[in-house]
Amino acid sequence: MAFFVRRISRAVITLCVVLTIVFFATRITGDPVMWLLPDDASMEAIENTRIRLGLDKPIHEQFSIFVKGVLQGDFGTSFLHRRSVTSLFLERIPQTVKLMSWALGLGIVLGIPLGIIAALNRNSALDRFLMTSSFLAYSIPNFVLGIFFILIFSLTLRWLPSGGYGNWRYMIMPVVTYGASHAGLVARLMRSSMLDVIRRDFIRTADSKGLPRHTVIMKHAFRIAVLPVITLIGLRLPHLISGSFVIETIYAWPGAGRLIIQAAKNRDFPVLQYAVFVTAILVIVANLLVDLAYGLLDPRIKYD
Amino acid sequence: MSKRALSSILTSIKKMPPMIIICFILLFAMIAAAVFLPFLEAIDPYTQNLLGRLAKPRFLDPASKYVLGSDPIGRDLLSRTVYGLACSLVIGALGVIIGTVLGVSLGMLSGLGGGILDNIIMAVAELQQSIPRTLILIVVVVLVRPSVTVMIVVLGVLSWNGYARLVRGQILSIREEEYVLCSKALGASQFYIAVKHVLKNIASPIIVLSTSNLSSIILSESTLSFLGVGLQPPAVSLGLMISSGRDHLATSWWLTIIPSIVLALLVITTSLIGDWLRDVLDPQLRHGA
User: Fold this and answer.
1) Do residues B203 and B1 touch, judged by C-beta distance below 8 A?
2) All residues at 6 or more sequence positions from A145 whose CB lies less than 8 Å from its CB, including other chains
3) Closest CA to B43 of B29, B28, B55, B25
4) Which A residues 204-223 touch B at CB under 8 Å?
5) Burial of B113 by CB count in 10 Å (0-12 exposed, 13-18 middle, 19+ buried)?
6) What is the architecture, at CATH level 2, of domain A93-297?
7) Mean pLDDT over residues B23-29, rounded?
8) Which of A35, A39, A281, B79 could disulfide-link B45, Cβ–Cβ 3.0 to 4.6 Å?
């Protein structure tokens, strides 16, 4: 228990620091008003916009308004969309989560069995083929893979739409592009972890008890071998979020990643602040969950 | 680098797998192209030729004036690709150097200094890890107008983390070793111990980390430029070329596909070489992620 209290209090401090840094960093460089208005805007228009956005107040006052807002779940109004940042994100996060969970699911569903198969057929042609393709899947940049898919499946074969949001046909390419790198990484790690585990004494014991091979592999070896994979999946969250920027931009997917990229291009600070804050929360929570999952799967680990 | 590491590299060059030899040849070819082609190539990557717009590459149209075709305002794709490659390599190499120097020094400060200094440095490392690197990059690049120099500095600085942890961990683990205590008893300074015992021991993992950082810095730069939040036109970068060519994917696919292939090859060769180095230099890590 004490362990988790300590972890959580540290996480809260981290979040406060993140928030403060982002707030001040976005204010010290440049003036967003200049980016929002045309070059020939009158002084009056500039002043009005500044008042409307609350940028005329002294910076410490802006900061206290900002902190009060955050505590009430209000992150201000997007400069660009002129709507509450929270509602903008709430509208788009489900789309991003949908994409992420399908992609991660695909990565796990493909990667774990392929990794096990490769490990059990170590150094065979099958193993080499699986490992080469998983290496390629995770080292080819996402956007390069995505562009090849668009060229082949939408523009040449005309099987799938090249982007946008709609029925399941719109999901195939983004999910496969996004999931490929996870599948590759999971398969490689699963293989090396499995190879490591099946050499151990308790597996030899299970084997010599006369248990069927698949029971030994699935019941005894798998439970231990999958632990590093779980850590990896938990630690992949930042990559998953970074990936969503790319995938959503390529496939014009109306999710949070694309919103963030548009905000960055237009210096829409409130959106960026929210993005940094929410991802920091997500990453910290994911790290906690990884620790918890460890405790559940491996009875040898106890937190106190 | 210790003699042991050097001799282990030499013996492993002798039994280098063919795949790695191909990777090295490819990488050297790319570096050579990036270094020499700007001098040999008569066509400048910025020269526009509106009469020669969207020319096909020579492998599709043997009569074409342009070896790899031209873009929508008639700029030569071959020289642009080579410039983009050079840009990636320069950003990658200098970024790695900045990251290594910064990370190793901070790791030493943290490990040897201990106390508050150590706490602060490690807290910053943890803070940075809780936000995806691409997002930090996006915010920083939005704040500071992105140029090649800015990209090098930002990408380099943000990669300090791994080195610092590595060096700090090494210092903590050997601090109580007998040979270090002996050296201390003989009056060696902290700095001497850091250089003589820590750096020598840690040279190989640092090389391994640097190679993997090289490919991740190259990838980050091209991803940001592709997303439109990195280098801005008229700068030449593979990411930018891939992104601007997308509008013509249906009609002139080579505008996007050629720089994509070059970028993919660059990333794949550097990460294969990195994996190989890890296996050779760091046998304990072989089963790691």
Assistant:
1) yes
2) A177, A180
3) B55
4) none
5) middle
6) Orthogonal Bundle (1.10)
7) 87
8) B79
Of chain A residues 223-242, which have a CB less than 8 A from chain B?
Answer: 228, 232, 238-239, 241-242
Q: Can you spell out the DSSP letters for B194-224?
A: IIIIIIHHHHHHHHHHHHHHHHHHHHHHHHH
Residues of A with CB below 8 A from B143's CB? 25-26, 28-30
Q: Around Cβ A37, how many Cβ atoms within 10 Å?
A: 14
Quote the tokens at residue A73.
């779940």
- Residue entry with tokens 């014991």: A205
pLDDT tens figures, B95-148:
999 999 999 999 888 888 778 888 888 888 888 887 888 888 888 887 787 888
Residue B9 C-alpha from the chain's centroid? 21
A272/A267 Cα distance (integer angstroms): 8
**Cα radius of gyration (chain A):** 24
Tokens found for residue B206: 């640092």
Instruction: Give yes or no for a contact between B63 and B118, defined as CB atoms under 8 angstroms apart.
Output: no
Between CA A258 and CA A263 the distance in angstroms is 8
Q: Find out whether B74 and B48 touch, Cβ atoms under 8 Å.
A: yes
Structure tokens at A256: 């949070």
Q: Are B68 and B57 in contact (CB under 8 A)?
A: yes
Alpha helices in A84-217 (DSSP H): 85-120, 125-139, 142-149, 169-197, 201-208, 213-215
Contacts of A245 in chain B (CB under 8 A): 134, 138, 227
Q: What is the ipTM of this complex?
A: 0.81
Which residue's structure tokens are 């996007």?
A: B256
- Taking CB atoms and an 8 Å cutoff, what residues of chain B touch A29? 143-144
What whole-number distance in Å separates Cα of residue A240 and Cα of residue A230? 14
Cis peptide before B234 (omega within 30 of 0): yes
How confident is the model at residue B287, as a pLDDT? Answer: 42
Nearest to A182 by CA among A74, A123, A102, A279: A102
Separation of CA B152 from chain center: 10
Domains of chain B: 3-38+47-286 (1.10.3720.10)
Instruction: Answer whether B135 sits within 8 Å of A260, measured CB to CB.
Output: yes
pLDDT 10s digits, B199-212: 777 888 888 889 88
User: What would the two tokens of residue A135 be?
Assistant: 């290496």
Residues with Cβ within 8 Å of residue A92, at least 6 apart in sequence: A254, A255, A256, A258, A259
The predicted-structure confidence for A35-94, as pLDDT tens digits, reads as follows: 666 667 777 877 777 777 677 777 778 888 878 877 887 777 787 787 888 888 888 888
User: Domain residue spans in chain A?
Assistant: 2-71, 93-297
